[in-house]
Amino acid sequence: MAKKTSNTSATVVEKPAAKRGAAKANAATGLPSKGAATVSKGAAARAKPTLLAGGNPQIAKGYGDAPVQAYIAAMPDWKCDVGRRLDALVVRAVPGVHKAVKWNSPLYGIDGEGWFLGLHCFTKYVKVAFFRGMSLHPVPPGASKSRETRYLHIREDEQFDEAQFTAWVRQASQLPGERM
């Protein structure tokens, strides 16, 4: 929308509110472009997300740490602690990892290489998707309809092998990622 100022003949063009602060993704990788704006931490913290079927938080699409942290904070019950732990392990294993929330799921990737891992809440478990999981050693246990993807389901009362998860994350980050 354009508006004239009263004292000058200059025209000021305002961006629509929906576009202000929105991150732009690199068309080739789906990862945010360098210098792309991200959702502010304050805005992400103020939003009260809706829980979808299975307790998956409905978080607006966004790039960077803030929308991922909003998703994790909105994970119900014990899943929130699992989300925090998984996020910390990924960040420790892959310094400089890129993050986003797309399709109500946090994604982790490498700039210019695509996404290698995603999280999603279900009623009884947190699903970790390794998008090139068939190339990991050992292969994660959960099968997928996608030929390359493998899953790890983390349930409330089961032991979680952090060392194995971290090894998979390191391996996955070295493989070509998904272009979403």
**Total DSSP E strands:** 10
Q: Provide a count of the helices.
A: 4
What helical percentage do the residues reach? 10-25%
Given helix and strand content, the structural type is alpha+beta
Question: What characterizes the major β-sheet?
Answer: 6 strands, antiparallel
Low-confidence stretches: 1-23, 34-41
Spatial strand arrangement across the major sheet: 5-6-7-8-9-10
Mean pLDDT: 81
Total number of domains: 1
Radius of gyration: 19 Å
Distance between the termini: 32 Å
The amount of beta strand, in percent, is: 15-25%
Q: Order of SSEs, N→C?
A: EEHEEEHHEEEEEH
Shape: globular
Main features:
alpha+beta, globular, 10 strands, six-stranded antiparallel sheet, disordered N terminus, 180 residues
Structural write-up:
The structure is a single chain. The protein is of the alpha+beta class and 180 residues long. It has four helices and ten strands. It has one domain (24-173). The strands form three sheets. The chain has a six-stranded antiparallel β-sheet, with helices on one face. A two-stranded antiparallel ribbon has the order 1-2. The protein is globular.
Write the layout of secondary structure elements.
Blueprint lengths: L1 E3 L6 E3 L27 H6 L3 E2 L5 E2 L3 E2 L1 H10 L3 H16 L4 E5 L2 E6 L3 E8 L3 E6 L19 E6 L6 H12 L7
Helix pairs in contact: 2-3
